[in-house]
Amino acid sequence: SERSNARTREAPETDPNAPNPRRAIEPAMRTVARAFATTTDADAREATETPEARARRTMRDGARKVREAADAGGARGESWGWVYDLTESGETAERWVNQANARLSDRAKTQMYAMHGEDPVTWSVDALAAKYRVRKQRVGAILALKRREEEAVKANRTLFHDTEAAMERASGSVDIGTGERHVADVPTMPQFQTVSAFDHGRDAKPKRFVEASELARKQERVLVREFFERLEYNVGERGQGLRRVSRRASAPPRPEGGYALHVTPLGDTNIEPYVAYKDGTQRPLNDDEAEHARQKTPKRRRRII
Predict the structure, then answer these.
(1) 236-292: per-residue pLDDT in tens?
(2) How many CB atoms lie within 10 A of CB 169?
(3) What is the pLDDT of residues 181-208, one digit of tens each?
(4) Burial level of 113, CB count in 10 A (0-12/13-18/19+)?
(5) Is the dihedral of CA 120, 121, 122, 123 positive or negative?
(6) Whole-prediction pTM value?
(7) Potential cystine with 180: which of 10, 77, 101, 264 (Cβ 3.0-4.6 Å)?
(8) What is the longest distance spanned by two Cα atoms in the chain?
(9) Residue 116 CA to its chain's centroid (Å)
(10) In whole angstroms, what is the distance from residue 264 CA to residue 7 CA?
(11) How far apart are CA 98 and CA 181, in angstroms?
(12) Residue 52 and residue 35: Cα distance in Å, rounded?
């Protein structure tokens, strides 16, 4: 007992306020242990999850990173985009109204396709565009994609509806648009017209000023017509006999007797384009050949943005 007392008396006195090295490294040790446990759990989950679950998890992680990057891009209240709003929708950098038109829910799209399939006369593209307050081009694209989805269901092909649901949960969805439409920008600055010395003041007529709404309606008719022409060509309704693969990747076999020539007469003539064979015979273009020629013909007009 004397030795133990002596050893006790000989031990240095500890300061209660002095830092404890073990207590200082305990948070770091807990962090390392938690990270190791998380890594172990993640490895075990990746080893047991299905490819579909792995794909959904990857999409969720990617969506979370996108949201984090978007949140870090600009704090709420900062004008990171445009400062002045000159539209009729009251759009700002934080209130982008027209983005809802691109986030129509799959429920609304399916209902739109069902209504058009039951009564295509009553629920035409124009009527559906007015009901859902979106442009005709968007309605046409939705109907075309839903038609292909129905064909895939009938063919018993795998469709990833979970992906669509995950995208709607991540980005949000709406059942009706905001009334999107094409808008034309018409300059309102003074436009002076040069009058020659042979023209008199009363005879010189300035160009008629076109209102922005009138110009937008004219441009929209052109845009709608060209969109549906390209849509019908892309989905295969036009030019069904045309090859849709690259000639470099898969060259077509040489026809028996050699290739024919597509001849387009030039100059002031009423002769229509035709197909000429090497034996001197010729025939008019069929529907596929006429569609191919139409696709290759450039449109002579200014580009509408």
Answers:
(1) 888 888 888 887 888 888 888 788 899 999 888 888 999 998 888 999 999 999 988
(2) 11
(3) 888 877 766 666 676 666 655 555 666 7
(4) buried
(5) positive
(6) 0.61
(7) 101
(8) 133
(9) 23
(10) 114
(11) 10
(12) 26
